[in-house]
């Protein structure tokens, strides 16, 4: 049985512009600090901003991906494991600001 539907389609992606600024500073070879400022949204409408610093720790690995990042200035991409710990401040209009810690590894 073959069924055709001509209903309204639901797009998988929404076209929007959310500005973001990232600034990196390498402290030592395995550690760098970075600051992020970006606009966030809820339900498709820009709501607030998100600010905060993070620390990246490069875990030394036996395999280094040197040839993969030949023309890339981001030296974290040549490491197999990077652990990041950060803090984010989210000022929200009409309510108290939100503070949260951010952790990730890649």
Topology:
Layout: E1 20-28, E2 31-42, E3 45-59, E4 81-90, E5 98-105
Antiparallel strand pairs: 1-2, 2-3, 3-4, 4-5
Walk me through what this model shows.
It is a single chain. This protein has 106 residues and is mostly beta strands. It has no helices and 5 strands. The chain has a domain at 20-65 and 75-83 and 95-105. It has strands spanning 20-28, 31-42, 45-59, 81-90, 98-105. Strands 1-2-3-4-5 form a 5-stranded antiparallel β-sheet, with no helix packed on it. A hairpin with a 2-residue loop joins strand 2 and strand 3 (45-59). The chain is elongated and about 50 Å long. The termini are far apart. 3% of the residues are buried.
Note poorly predicted spans: none
Q: How is the main sheet built?
A: 5 strands, antiparallel
N-to-C order of helices and strands: EEEEE
Number of helix segments?
A: 0
Query: Which structural class best describes the helix and strand composition?
Result: mainly beta
Q: Into which percent range does the helicity of residues fall? A: under 10%
Mean pLDDT: 75
Question: How many strand elements?
Answer: 5
N-to-C CA distance: 46 Å
In angstroms, what is the radius of gyration?
20 Å
Shape: elongated
Biggest sheet: strand arrangement: 1-2-3-4-5
Query: Percent of residues in beta strands?
Result: over 45%
Short note summarizing the structure:
Helices cover about 0% and strands about 50% of the residues. It has a 5-stranded antiparallel β-sheet, with no helix packed on it.
